[in-house]
Amino acid sequence: MNAAVRAVVRMGIYTGAKVYFIYEGYQGMVDGGNNIMEANWESVSSILQVGGTIIGSARCKAFRTREGRLKAAHNLVQRGITNLCVIGGDGSLTGANIFREEWSALLEELAQDGKISKEDVQKHGYLNVVGMVGSIDNDFCGTDMTIGTDSALHRIIEVVDAIMTTAQSHQRTFVLEVMGRHCGYLALVSALACGADWVFLPESPPEEGWQERMCVKLSENRARKKRLNIIIVSEGAIDTQNKPITSEQIKDLVVTQLGYDTRVTILGHVQRGGTPSAFDRILASRMGVEAVVALLQATPETPACVVSLSGNQAVRLPLVECVQMTQGVQKAMDEKRFKEAVQLRGRSFEGNLNIYQQLCIKKPDSQITKSGCNVAVINVGAPAAGMNAAVRSAVRVGISEGHKMFAVYDGFEGFAKGQIKEIGWSDVGGWTGQGGSILGTKRILPAKYLKDIASQMRAHSINALLIIGGFEAYLGLLELSAAREKHEEFCVPMIMVPATVSNNVPGSDFSIGADTALNTITDTCDRIKQSASGTKRRVFIIETMGGYCGYLANMGALSAGADAAYIFEEPFDIRDLQSNVEHLTEKMKTSIQRGLVLRNESCNENYTTDFIYQLYSEEGRGVFDCRKNVLGHMQQGGAPSPFDRNFGTKISARAMQWITGKLKEMQGKGRKFVTDDSICVLGINQRNLLFRPVAELKEETDFEHRIPKVQWWLKLRPLMKILAKYKASFEVSVPSQLDHVHFGPEEPAAI
């Protein structure tokens, strides 16, 4: 929430508006006085890394009454406030909408009581309301992610990772209870991200006789040498009769039926606290800026709207529509229309549920129709966190679709040497939380091994290939596609899933591993900023990875609140460096006496990190001193973030379904694939999962610098500059256009 508060205040001031803090939620608006204070640029400094909200929040009974709202209106009119930005859940947003609808009547009443003048009524005739959804449950319809959800997942996954090590040692079963009174999103995604054995959700209660089935599943897993069982329970879990299912009940069941050593852990309010994740900070900053723009463009006729995220696009939706749909889910659950409740949550939720079921429960061999196909999985390029989650997902989806799965070790070089083994369902157990690449990965391209790779594919009769990797994987795919004429072994469906910290693969807005790297950068910057505010008047210059792609530097700067980010995509010269030094000199005169500058490793061959450090040191002499820090390979390591586990799992499952589809098409037609559309990159573009033939992507690639020619995140550059107090032109969306909440088949799939 603090990132959103910061963005609203700074964007508001940037556009010349007066911005006020209302402390303690609606209670502060009703009480007035010192609860409503003007905010300035510095009031929101150093709050990005703080959890919770600096302006406080409170449930308020008074605001639910008309008298309460009358007082609130009086307090706002006295200060000339007619634009309200509300950050909260559906309750807060519904309240804001009622307030907006009653506004003119409230003012009339205040004028009659002689509390305000007739001029005031005319001057402040209407109230604009824009909402941002802050809720860790992600229970609001119309938005892909609410502010706070990703951070809550970080807390849950940290706990699960810690519990897994102890459960493994003692052969224990753990029942973990997570938040979500009416919404199972947190439970479902954390179950997907840690490979839990069983999950209980309010929207999708287990069918009759689940007790038996769950115990069978747990004992089967133990028999497969799995030393731990994890069961995740949403606090609002119910059975088909709407009776609650509690974690204690589940524990007692496991103990009496199976006699396993079982422990319950209730995460509780841990999930609301802690430092916000990089994703949440960027999301909230974008939403905050969009909210200010929406308020400035609003007219008396504009309905109250919610700014939200659709894929990576900021959109505005009618508040009333979203609230009605959110309440519709609850109604469906109360009336036991559970299938409908899951659908109302949106395609993303439904997709999560289907993939979880496919990956969690192995069908008995008798129920799997064998396809007679062999599919190989290979990792190529530099390691990225989340690769293992993608391999696990591919292997399990492949097996459940009847293929024989093969793992190729050590990239294309290992492929040529025949380091290929069949890989089974339980071989990939517990892989989701592992960083790096268990299969091993190399940057070597296939060109010089084509003959050997072809003969290995023939020897193991490989019918399809899934490549998980970065830019090298993309180049490798191009080389294999060019070699199809010479080697018919390569005439099989091939698909690449992008996995690289640099996020520089053409055909996809995101790649596996980038979110984890971004969190590493953000955490490090937080620590460095803390050290800098201790010493005062200090500027840090931090070098990030990414090759020529400035994604990590730019997004890292946005999420850590940096003063500048130097990237290759936006050429800069000595004058820009000079103006940045002057900007920092001005900043040192304020109460914020520290600076943070990010530099992408290849942004300029002459303006190196050392050069910039020396320039700043010289130019800032007597005003500030300088330190530099090269982050290096720590950006590739570490346990994958919830986003990367989830993204890797889902995109890889989708890739396997594509392979199955292609292999089915060609059954009985001889198995030669020669068309362009049988060799693709699977990427996420805005909100859609797209399969793009590599032949098509060639046109969109800058091969010399190993980046796509057009990159979506560059349009967030001005955002970073504005929030760091630079002048920048910010492209705004079309004012009049309010999207509607999409629902059903036309709603695109979100990751």
From TrEMBL:
Binding annotation for substrate: S135, I136, D137, R172, M179, G180, R181, E235, R263, H269, V270, Q271, R272
Top-tier EC class: transferase
Pfam families: PFK
Tagged with keyword Transferase: yes
Pathway: Carbohydrate degradation; glycolysis; D-glyceraldehyde 3-phosphate and glycerone phosphate from D-glucose: step 3/4
Positions annotated as active site in the UniProt record: D137
Enzyme Commission identifier(s): 2.7.1.11
Cofactor(s) annotated in UniProt: Mg(2+)
Start and end residues of each stretch annotated as C-terminal regulatory PFK domain 2: 374-751
Positions with a binding annotation for Mg(2+): D90
InterPro entries cross-referenced by the UniProt entry: 6-Pfructokinase_euk, ATP_PFK, PFK_vert-type, Phosphofructokinase_CS, Phosphofructokinase_dom, PKF_sf
MF terms in GO: 6-phosphofructokinase activity; AMP binding; ATP binding; fructose-6-phosphate binding; identical protein binding; metal ion binding; monosaccharide binding
Residues binding ATP: R59, C60, G89, D90, G91, S92
Subcellular localization: Cytoplasm
Domain spans labelled Phosphofructokinase: 1-294, 374-659
Gene Ontology cellular component annotations, sorted alphabetically: 6-phosphofructokinase complex; membrane
GO BP, one annotated term: fructose 1,6-bisphosphate metabolic process
Positions bound to beta-D-fructose 2,6-bisphosphate: 443, 500-504, 538, 545-547, 601, 627, 633-636, 706
Reactions this protein catalyses: beta-D-fructose 6-phosphate + ATP = beta-D-fructose 1,6-bisphosphate + ADP + H(+)
Keyword tags: Acetylation, Allosteric enzyme, ATP-binding, Cytoplasm, Glycolysis, Glycoprotein, Kinase, Magnesium, Metal-binding, Nucleotide-binding, Phosphoprotein, Transferase
PROSITE patterns for the chain: PHOSPHOFRUCTOKINASE (PS00433)
Gene3D superfamilies assigned: 3.40.50.450, Phosphofructokinase domain
Activity regulation details: Allosterically activated by ADP, AMP, or fructose 2,6-bisphosphate, and allosterically inhibited by ATP or citrate.
Family: Belongs to the phosphofructokinase type A (PFKA) family. ATP-dependent PFK group I subfamily. Eukaryotic two domain clade "E" sub-subfamily. Belongs to the phosphofructokinase type A (PFKA) family. ATP-dependent PFK group I subfamily. Eukaryotic two domain clade 'E' sub-subfamily.
Subunit field text: Homo- and heterotetramers.
Name this protein carries in UniProt: ATP-dependent 6-phosphofructokinase
